[in-house]
Amino acid sequence: MILPIVAYGSPVLRKVCEDIGPEYPGLEKLIADMWETMYNSNGVGLAAPQVNMPIRLFTIDSEQIFNHQEEEEKGQYPDEPGYRGVFINAHIRELSGKEWAYNEGCLSIPKIREDVNREEQVTLEYLDELFLPQTRTFNGLTARVILHEYDHIEGRLFIDHLKPLKRKLLKRKLDDISRGKIKVDYRMVFPK
Q1: Span 96-114, mean pLDDT?
Q2: For 145-182, how does the pLDDT look when each residue is reduced to its tens digit (9 = 90+)?
Q3: Which of 50, 110, 139, 164 gets the most CB atoms within 10 Å of its CB?
Q4: Residue of higher predicted confidence among 75 and 94
């Protein structure tokens, strides 16, 4: 089932999310719905708070980025061909490498894209969809997508990484999003 995406301004997007256990009700269906919602919205990642669930869960599929690259972009990133996976109760163990800029967007903040600096590499401890413990290091675009989604479960948004002046310049657009004055081709819910 395709779930509505929560828009900028909704309080759930600013909550630090809770760890969950394997007994979490309807978890398998929620994960399936998140995949369907993410693909329907043309996203490469989706965090549970974006579907109004304040839990430490996100899905990513950076393979899509590589599948849609222009010919001249191929071979630029060390994580090609990407990664597809579910991250439950993720916690960062280490950030490393130089910060680099990449143009990011967010399903909860449609029609706004900005360059964001993030570290090249992240090591995470998390549980996969079978609740098997994982410790893994990701780099390149996959690390970036993970860090973007990880921000969501920590109550942060990609715009929080922007300089204050840049955020100030975006204020009107952000206000329009939170008021529902935006047209997108996927379902959204707006703050009341």
Answers
A1: 97
A2: 999 999 999 999 999 999 999 999 999 999 999 999 99
A3: 50
A4: 94
Sequence-distant (6+) residues with CB within 8 A of 172 are none
Q: Which residues are catalytic?
A: 149
Q: What type of residue sits at position 91?
A: H
CATH of region 5-189, choose from 3.30.420.40, 3.40.50.720, 3.40.1190.20, 3.90.45.10? 3.90.45.10
Q: Specify the amino acid at residue 143.
A: A
Going from N- to C-terminal start, the domains of the chain cover 5-189
What does the block give as tokens for 92? 């960062």
CA 21, CA 135: separation in Å to the nearest integer? 18
Amino acid at 153: I
- The structure tokens 């819910």 sit at 189
